[in-house]
Every structure is written in C-alpha cells, then in structure tokens.
C-alpha cells in the first residue's frame, strides 16, 4: 500500500512540473513575439519618417501579425493615405476604429475618413472631366440603354 501513494505523488509532481514548464515556454514565446513586433514597428516608423510609404506598411503589417495592436492598423492607414490609396486608407481607418472604439484620436480619424472620401470623389469627378471622350462614351452607353 505504501508504494501507491509514492507513485501517485510522483505523478502529481511530474504533472505540475510539466505544466509550469509549458507556461514558461508560452510566456517566452509571447515575450519573443512582442519584441519582434517592436522591431518591425521601429523599422516601419523609420521607413515612414523617410517617406518610404511603400515599405513602411510591410513592417507595420508584420508587427500586427505578431501583436494585434490596433495602432498598427492606424499606422498602415496613414501610409496608404500618404500614397493616395484612399479606399485602402479608409478601410484600414475603419478597422482601427472597430478595434479601438474608445481611441483618443477617434474624432481625428473620423474626420480623416470624411476628408478622404471627399477627396476620392473629387478625384473621380476630375478624372471623368479630364477624359471627355470616355465621358461621352459612357453617356452614349447609358443613353442607348446598355448600362443598367
């Protein structure tokens, strides 16, 4: 009878040791991911500060993949705004606000979205006006009932 409790105690100790070791490895991975995300953020910020708006979002996206911090979405949106890729910027600003509904800069971001939508519409009108042949073609299609 004495043997069973010792085996049981050994099994419990082994289970606890395994659980503690697993938690330690998980914590190490989290710390490693956070540090790697910080490194990507720093690279992205450097690219942004240098006006390298094509390179910066790649780094911010990698940071976001490692650590889902909404501020990375904001940074990516800023890059697309600088590149005049308004629809992508608007989409990412929206994602940012959904993930950070109480963001301190919410009013500013909502204003950015409104401004970008207005700018995108202005550009679209300007493109249509600058191409009279295309506008005439589109008008003819509509008049002939080909477009619905």
Describe this structure in words.
The structure is a single chain. This protein has 148 residues and is mainly alpha-helical. It has a single domain, classed as Tetratricopeptide repeat domain (Serine Threonine Protein Phosphatase 5, Tetratricopeptide repeat), CATH 1.25.40.10. The chain is built from 6 helices and no strands. The protein has helices spanning 3-49, 56-66, 70-82, 86-99, 106-130, 132-143. α2 packs antiparallel against α3 (70-82), α3 packs antiparallel against α4 and α4 (86-99) runs antiparallel to α5 (106-130). It is elongated, with a radius of gyration of 27 Å.
SSE layout and pairing:
Layout: H1 3-49, H2 56-66, H3 70-82, H4 86-99, H5 106-130, H6 132-143
Helix pairs in contact: 1-2, 2-3, 3-4, 4-5
In brief:
By secondary structure, the protein is an all-alpha fold.
Main sheet makeup: none
Beta-strand residue fraction = under 5%
Q: How do the SSEs run, as a string of H and E?
A: HHHHHH
CATH class annotation: Mainly Alpha
Examine the coordinates and then state which fold CATH places here, giving the name of the CATH topology.
Answer: Serine Threonine Protein Phosphatase 5, Tetratricopeptide repeat
Average predicted local confidence, pLDDT: 84
How many strands? 0
- Count of DSSP-assigned helices: 6
C-alpha end-to-end distance: 87 Å
Helical fraction? over 70%
- The global form is elongated
Low-confidence stretches: none
Radius of gyration: 27 Å
Main structural class: mainly alpha
**Which architecture name does CATH use?**
Alpha Horseshoe
Number of domains: 1
């Amino acid at each position: 009878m004495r043997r069973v409790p010792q085996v049981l105690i050994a099994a419990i100790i082994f289970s606890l040791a395994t659980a503690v070791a697993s938690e330690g490895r998980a914590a190490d991975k989290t710390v490693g991911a956070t540090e790697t995300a910080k490194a990507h953020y720093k690279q992205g910020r450097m690219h942004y500060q240098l006006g390298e708006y094509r390179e910066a979002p790649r780094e911010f996206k990698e940071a976001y993949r490692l650590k889902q911090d909404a501020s990375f979405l904001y940074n990516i949106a800023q890059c697309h705004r600088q590149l005049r890729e308004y629809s992508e910027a608007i989409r990412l600003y929206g994602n940012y606000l959904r993930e950070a509904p109480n963001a301190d800069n919410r009013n500013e971001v909502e204003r950015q979205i409104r401004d970008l939508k207005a700018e995108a519409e202005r550009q679209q009108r300007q493109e249509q006006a600058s191409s009279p042949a295309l506008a005439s073609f589109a008008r003819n299609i509509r008049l002939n009932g080909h477009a619905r």
